[in-house]
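#onboarding

Welcome to the new folks! Below is a worked example of what a typical request in this channel looks like: someone posts a single protein sequence, and someone else replies with the predicted structure as tokens. Don't worry about understanding the tokens yet, we'll cover that in week two.

Example request:
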Amino acid sequence: MDSILNINEIASWGLSKTVAEFFYIIIGIVFILVGVKALRDKNHSSRLMTAAFWFILAFTFIAGPYLPKFITGIAVVAIALLTGARQVKPSQSDVPSAEETRKNADKLRYKVFLPALVLALAAVLIATFWKDLGANNAIGASALVALVVTFLVTRVNPKYVPKDGARLMDNVGTVGILPQLLAALGALFTAAGVGTVIANGVQAIIPEGSKLIAVAVYCISMALFTIIMGNGFAAFSVITVGIGIPFLIAQGANPIIVGALGLTAGYCGTLMTPMAANFNIMPAALLETNDKYVIIKSQAPFALVMLAVHIILMYLLAF
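Example response:
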């Protein structure tokens, strides 16, 4: 019955949903390539379990809409067990020599940043002028545009697209799916009424009618909950329900300003947490720094200053 319902839903997909599934399939293919990469590494200490992790993850991304939900749930539990048992490890990668890297860097110089700039600009333009596609799909479409620019700038062999894509995903490892899991956890917290519990606790802290204290508590709570969750979106739904709506918007604050500045206040917490592994831990690993928390230590002072600025701006602009 569940599968029949899924088929009916698939038949009614619009442009945004269809394109999104196309990108999910591409992501799934990358996961498959990472699994194959692990299987080919004969010296890998847990190549079978590592490959199983990536194949199961790819299965959920590619076949997810067509599966009963309990199958997807079993797959999530399986990859969680493999991760918890520390059976998912990066495999050996074929990387260019230092001399070759230096030669290419000298050749490309600052042109190497063009694809990244094009990606950001294309994402904004597509999201702004092609609203039917959806903001998330705009990121995927802009990545395709940036890929074309990469070919034009570097003249690289197309075979390196899947090869280096799999290598990068392998280096990122299991933390690559952390944002999805944390976003789901945020939705779970909202459904469980965590926001209401927070509101009851905060009510004893914020004096009635004190807008400045309410703004400060909201922004600081957004940052702290993001530090715990590692995801500003997950924190936003919980803290806005628990604090933003009853203590700010109910007092006449502009909901647009509260929402915009509240979310970016949460991002201040993102800069200070190892839970945001893809932002703060992964770059340190890729750069092979001696201290894996060096990025967080560098960002923390700026994050605290920006958080204070958010409190001031929200107090001045929202009311």
